[in-house]
Every structure is written in structure tokens, then in C-alpha cells.
Design goal:
The complex is a heterodimer of chains A (316) and B (119). Chain A is α+β, with helices and mostly antiparallel strands and 316 residues long. Chain A contains eight helices and twelve strands. Chain B has a seven-stranded antiparallel beta sheet, with helices on one face. The chains are: A alpha+beta (316), B alpha+beta (119).
């Protein structure tokens, strides 16, 4: 006996039904023969998290089944974290259509017409979600909200008013200085811009050079224009999830002389790489950087702006 | 020998090459320095970090790199490091002078002003 559920709703109860006998055996045999579709529900579980369709739940209701089919006692399929090819979608469609035949747990009075309508809704949402271009699943790269109160100017009255918070989603990666520091070639030939955008190019990358906006004078606006030319966005001008990883980066300037960049990490601090020197997370006073706008920066006195980098940004 | 002024983070650092004669002169000045127990200077901060002198070819038994900042000279030989004291900052001034005709004037003046800050 197995229980099938669809994780789709936010407020109302998700639909669940129990299957027994040959149908249950057939489903489990199918799962056992295509294990890459199985997504374990454990501490490291990662799947769709947005509103709407999030996956199909399968729970084994007797202990012999886990041994017979060598499957976990419960798992998800078509939830964004395991195989989701066309064959897997066929399996999902079969399961979802199966709900028409069985009473729904907690909604036993729901008739066949209702279950048919619900099944079609779920199938539509499932196919739409599974077939959409999935953002890259990058391990150890949590997506977080980056937001604050937004105060836009009304186009009609040109007045300032407080509205809902602006919020963009970004990715924060772990601090990994050894990547930049342990190899002489990487350390020597990659600078602050390489580090902030997390792109090793071995060219001592310059903002704007890859997109044709180079050289320029060393002040906030030209360097900002150069970075935007490469494809960066100013903070709160969001990138879609398809552009992940989207890093939060910051730029400062030594007026008339040079620029410098920082990148935020999931540990909560900012990392940077002053030119050919080591990547690190401390400022000129040796303090861990939690705010690049106020950290010790030597001659880089002008804090210019925060930006987002993105997957399609060009850096050279 | 190649000289690199470690000063920038984003822009490439200014570099130039010493002639054979200049290289000999530099090595001669190094030999006159006394070892010291002073602490090394940090070499990975923002801003001026000193002059880095690099031997073009690996020569076992002879120094590979020399960092000069203020009155402190850090010599790296194979895998060993030694710190020397240059009381009059002669080496730093000599290296600065060697670049005067080789790099942009404004840039040279900037480096000069950074050396004079005594950072």
C-alpha cells in the first residue's frame, strides 16, 4: 500500500490518496527501475520552493516494500531536484491521472468530477513547471532575498511615497580564498574584478573591456558604466532566476587612480582580492568586512555603489 | 630583473625591467643590508604595498623575489624568507628613481607620494 500526494497548494490541504494492490506494485516497480527520478527527503532536500506545483510525494505504508523495491520509505519525484526528462513526466502524469480513481484523504466526499478537474489542474501546472527552463542548481549556493524599503517617485505627482519593499533574489557562495591564492598563475593574473564577479580569466580583468567600454577615467560613474556595459545591474534592478548565480558586489574608487570590488558571501561577510595579492575577507585594519561602505580601504575613499553580477555578464 | 610596483587593485600595476648593470647595482646594495627581526609588512592590503623585484630566471641559491617597502626588505630565496632593515630607505628610493623615465609622469609622482607617506 502506498500513499501518493501532490505538493501544490499553500492554504488548502494538498491532495493525497492511497493505492493498493497491483497498481501500487506497478508504480513501485516503475520507480525502482528508474531511480534517478527519486529525490530523497532528508536534511539536504532541495526542490521547488515557489508557490504552485512543487512535486509528487510517494510514501510506502509497509516496511516490506522498502526492502522489496529498495526504495526509501518516502520520497519525492518531479520536484526540481532529480531527473525530470520526458519519460519522468509520463510517470508523473500517470500518477496524477490516477487520483481520479481513488478517494482523496480528508476530502472523501469529493466526487469523480471534482477529482477529474483537480487532476487536470495539477497535470497542467506540473507540466508547465517541469518544462520551464530550470535555473542552474548549484550546490552550496543558497538563493536569498536582497531587499529593503522602496521609495519610488510617483510618475503623476512626482511625490515620494513608501511602498512595498523592493526585493531581488541573489546567490551567496561560500568564501573560498584558496581557489584564488594557492596557484601562482591564478593569484598573479586575477584581480578584484575577477574575484567580485567570480570569474577566473587570467587577464587581470577590467570592467568594460569585454563589452567595448574601456578605458575610462577612475571615478564612480565611468567605472559603474563600464560594469553595466559588461552586463551587471545596479542593486534592486533584479535579475531573473535564469541568470543565477547572481552575486551581490560592491565598488569603491581611489579617486582618479583606481577602483576596487567586493563580493558578499554566505557566511555574512564580504570577500575581496586587492590586485595580485591574496583573496581575503579582512580590510586594511585586519577586521572582517561586514560592510564595504565603512571598512578600512586606504586611498579607495569613494564608495560608489552595489551591483549584481549575473551568469551572462561578460568579463575579460 | 623585473620591477612591479604593487599599488593597484583593479588597474594593472606599473612594471619595468632593470638593465643588467642596474640589476648588478641592486644586488650589490642588497648584500650590504643587515638581517633583522622586524615584523614583515602586510603585502595584501589596498594601496601601496611596495616594490616587488623579481629575478627573470630561476637561479638556485640566489634570491627569487625581493619586496621593498619603506625601510623593510623581504628577501625570498628558494623556500626561505629573510627580513632585512634598510635604515635610510635607500633601496626603495633607488627603485623609485629607476622607474622615473620608464613610466607615466603622473603615475611616478603618485608612487613617490605614496612612498613618502611612510605607509
Amino acid at each position: 500500500m502506498i500513499v501518493i500526494g501532490v505538493d501544490i497548494f499553500s492554504g488548502r490541504q494538498n491532495p493525497r490518496w492511497v493505492i493498493d494492490g497491483r497498481e501500487a506494485q506497478s508504480i513501485l516497480k516503475m520507480m525502482a527501475s528508474k531511480r534517478d527520478i527519486v529525490s530523497r527527503i532528508d536534511r539536504d532536500y532541495k526542490g521547488y520552493e515557489e508557490l504552485g506545483y512543487r512535486g509528487i510525494y510517494i510514501g510506502l505504508l509497509s516496511d516490506d516494500l522498502t526492502l522489496e523495491y529498495d526504495l526509501p520509505h518516502h520520497f519525492m519525484i518531479l520536484n526540481g531536484s532529480a531527473s525530470q526528462d520526458s519519460k519522468d513526466l509520463e510517470i508523473g502524469t500517470r500518477l496524477v491521472r490516477g487520483m481520479i480513481k481513488y478517494p482523496l484523504h480528508g476530502e472523501e466526499k469529493a466526487n469523480k468530477a471534482y477529482r477529474t478537474k483537480l487532476s487536470k489542474l495539477i497535470e497542467t501546472e506540473m507540466v508547465k513547471k517541469v518544462k520551464q527552463k530550470a535555473p542552474p542548481k548549484i550546490p552550496h549556493l543558497p538563493t536569498v532575498a536582497d531587499g529593503e524599503d522602496l521609495k519610488p517617485i510617483s510618475k503623476k505627482t512626482k511625490s515620494m511615497k513608501k511602498t512595498s519593499k523592493a526585493c531581488c533574489y541573489i546567490e551567496l557562495c561560500s568564501f573560498n580564498p584558496s581557489f584564488w591564492n594557492n596557484c601562482k598563475t591564478i593569484k598573479q593574473n586575477n584581480n578584484c574584478y575577477n574575484y567580485a564577479t567570480n570569474r577566473r580569466t587570467d587577464t587581470f580583468a577590467q570592467p568594460g573591456r569585454a563589452s567595448g567600454y574601456y578605458p575610462y577615467s577612475m571615478s564612480c560613474n565611468p567605472v559603474k558604466t563600464a560594469a553595466l556595459s559588461d552586463g551587471a545591474h545596479v542593486r534592486y534592478d533584479c535579475f531573473p532566476s535564469s541568470e543565477a548565480p547572481r552575486y551581490l558586489i560592491a565598488m569603491v574608487v581611489w579617486p582618479g587612480v583606481d577602483y576596487h570590488w567586493y563580493r558578499k558571501h554566505c557566511e555574512g561577510f564580504w570577500g575581496h582580492k586587492p590586485g595580485s595579492t591574496n583573496a581575503k575577507n579582512t580590510d586594511n585594519n585586519g577586521n572582517v568586512i561586514y560592510d564595504p561602505s565603512t571598512c578600512a580601504r586606504g586611498g579607495y575613499t569613494d564608495f560608489c555603489s552595489y551591483f549584481y553580477s549575473c551568469k551572462s555578464m561578460v568579463v575579460s | 630583473m623585473n620591477i612591479e610596483v604593487r599599488i593597484f587593485s583593479g588597474r594593472p600595476n606599473p612594471t619595468w625591467r632593470l638593465s643588467d648593470q642596474e640589476s648588478l647595482e641592486f644586488t650589490g646594495m642588497l648584500k650590504k643590508l643587515n638581517k633583522s627581526n622586524v615584523k614583515e609588512f602586510p603585502r595584501d592590503n589596498l594601496g601601496y604595498q611596495g616594490f616587488l623585484v623579481m629575478r627573470e630566471q630561476h637561479d638556485p641559491g640566489r634570491f627569487r623575489e625581493v619586496w621593498v617597502k619603506g625601510n623593510i626588505v623581504l628577501l625570498e630565496k628558494d623556500i626561505r624568507k629573510a627580513v632585512y632593515l634598510d635604515d635610510n630607505r635607500r633601496l626603495e628610493q633607488w627603485l623609485l628613481a629607476s622607474g622615473k623615465t620608464r613610466i607615466d609622469t603622473d603615475l611616478w609622482e603618485l608612487i613617490k607620494s605614496e612612498t613618502e607617506k611612510g605607509n
